[in-house]
Amino acid sequence: MARISVIVPVYQVEAYLDRCVRSILGQSFRDFELILVDDGSPDGCGALCDGYARADRRVRVIHQKNGGLSAARNAGIDLALEGDAQWLTFIDSDDWVHREMLGAMLSAAGSLDTKISVCAYGETAGEDPWTGAPLEAEAWEPEPFYRQHFILATIACAKLYHRSLFEGLRYPLGKLHEDEFVTYRLLFTQEKLAVIFAPLYAYYQNDSGITKTNWTPRRLDAWEAYDQQIAFFRQLGREEMVRFRLRGFLENAMVNLNQAETSPRAREYRRTIRAMYRRIRRLLRQCWHGGCIRFWMDFDILVRFYPVTTRLYRLWLEGKEKLRRKGHG
What we know:
Elements lengths: L3 E7 L6 H9 L6 E8 L5 H11 L3 E6 L4 H14 L4 E4 L5 E2 L3 H11 L4 E9 L13 E3 L1 H7 L1 H5 L4 E4 L16 H9 L5 E12 L16 H16 L2 H23 L8 H21 L8 H7 L1 H21 L2
């Protein structure tokens, strides 16, 4: 049986699927299976998947009713865990990978004795992001890696996972930003990660992708994930990580609020926007008590949500500063 299961959710990517599949089947490391999950795609993707399976015995196909990205990934995980493959990786069907990706990540995990290896990704409009960078792996502890390389640490792709990590863990159904609910939990099971900073994963900038369309309240699924992350890190006693995620939550919240208020459907979203205001007020209190608010730098945010308290506090600070200067005069 194969050593690695490569899981590719497939939905409405007829124009890109062949590029993705060819990059996988062309890997220099050959001992893998490719699981294509046709998630009820309404175009010709299902037939393309069956064609790949007929042409290459390493390809297995699942056809299922459309359930979203999490459902497709979960179906692939379930099938992979029925077999003997010891490692899993995810590749989005409009992306592609360098021919050394699987071999390099497997070697990195083995050489550094970890259950997760990571490679860098390159954002691309179609050109190859490969730079000829060395394939040597570096050992990183999860916390500094998560804080210094947050996006790479968050996405499900560009990683090789030992199968044991998915025992009892799946992606949440029906959620946007599903990676935010899962990847951090996987990373923090390890004392160290094997990280290859060569861009072996090509992340295609697809303007019709899920997160590139107009703002909708589904974007707020990430807020639920952030609450879970904060609770997770607090339970671990990692207060620096709690502050890091609180700050990230606040910055994300302000971006989403601006997008919601300037959306063409803003009037339709009035109730959601009011709820966002209430949540941000609570979040600001959490940030204040957590020590991740910078009063003068964040003054515009604070005065927007707590106008009276913020102005009074500013007056107190300014009065305190005047007294200090007078005392030194």
